[in-house]
Amino acid sequence: MIKREAYMSLIRPFIGTELIKVLTGxxxxxxSVMLELIQNDLISQGVSNSQFIKFNFEDMKNxxxxxxxxxxxxxxxxxxxxxxxxxxxxxxxxxxIDWEKCINSFRVEFDCDIYITGSNAKLLSGELATYLAGRYxxxxxxxxxFKEFTELYATIFPNIKRQExxxxxxxxxxxxxxxxxxxxxxPSQLYLVDLYNSVVFKDxxxxxxxxxxxxxxxxxxxxxxxxxxxFSAASISKYFKNESRMAAPETIMNYINYxxxxxxxxxxxxxxxxxxxxxxxxxxxxIADHGIRExxxxxxxxxxxxxxxxxxxxxxLRRGYKITVGKAGTKEIDFVxxxxxxxxxxxxxxxxxxxxxxxxxxxxxxxxxxNFPKYVVSLDEFDMSREGIKHKNICDFLLASDLA
Length: 404
Description:
This protein is of the alpha/beta class. Helix content is 43%, strand content 20%. It is built from 15 helices and twelve strands. It has a seven-stranded mixed beta sheet. The chain has a five-stranded parallel beta sheet with strand order 2-3-4-1-5, with helices on both faces. Helix 3 runs parallel beside helix 4, helix 7 crosses helix 12 and helix 9 (213-225) packs across helix 11 (249-261).
């Protein structure tokens, strides 16, 4: 089991406090394992396993507890026989009807420490805010970073070279369970297709009562094919019209929002760096895990420039940056990243194979006069840094302990 210390270091200060710990993220990104890691941490602090009460609401054995009153009755019964502080773990809590009322009741009634997971952003923000405003803290759990991937991969293939590991990561992405399949081609692909279907039909279609599943899948395929490129709902509508498939921009935007609520996609706004304002049209979208793209849509190696950009975006997101696309006159910087008082710029390229390419990638920073770090990231092994702009091999960038 990979320890995922990057998350544990964020969660640990809140362990034992009255704040409800909420773990969200795309289905099968490792939220259940995070609950196990938290339990292991508690046991190392002297907490007894008998003080844990655990439920996974996707387990059919718990289907009778998927209503707030039934769950409350069951937990109350179990707590009555336990001495000391109680630790409550609820996995995929969104399966419980009126779960938020039940969780709030536990918080008020008992001396307990509560942890919940869920696979929908809206469920675990709006509804929580209503009943538990100011009484919870949320952590988004992403698929494995390249660093976490290499940690797991080295336990399976101890003598593998870093570049070979990165090639596997490019193909399969960072879904934790793939390690159990030893990253074998066909089983891994089947697993990722099944994961995609679960997200689409359980977390998007079922939850949002989507009627036009064909349209939804067409929109997802369009975003898969255009990851990291700017477009709008209106441009998708126009594209579909040319394909003799009518869809209003408002409907398309609703479906995209459903996908983002399920953590399948992330939207990145564009920022005018000269006017210092957010632009309201033509956002970019990135996929939570590029391995899903390869399994469902294919073409990761053909579109390697876009996939590398997706990998870098997700790494920056894991590191806690607020990210926009930077527009400086006629030039565009892939990522403008801000965190507290830190700021950095990142431009992603496949290979700096010619002087023209080098000039194009480095010159995007011509209009940026501040002293924050500026990166060009590519697959090249040789350092091509110039004029204060840092060039990094993508593996070195992903594995760096600090980017600021």
